[in-house]
Amino acid sequence: MVKVTREGGGIVPKIVDHEARRTRLVEAVWSLAVRGGIEQVSLRKVAEEAGVSMGQVQHYYSSMQALIRDALDRAVRAVNTTIENAVAAADTTSPETVLRACLYALISPAEESSRLMRFALAAAGRAASDPTMAKVLAPGDDELLTFTAGLITAAREERGSEQHGEGRTDADICWSLATSLGVDIALGYRTPEAAERVLDHYIEQVLR
Question: Higher pLDDT residue, 194 or 208?
Answer without folding.
Answer: 194
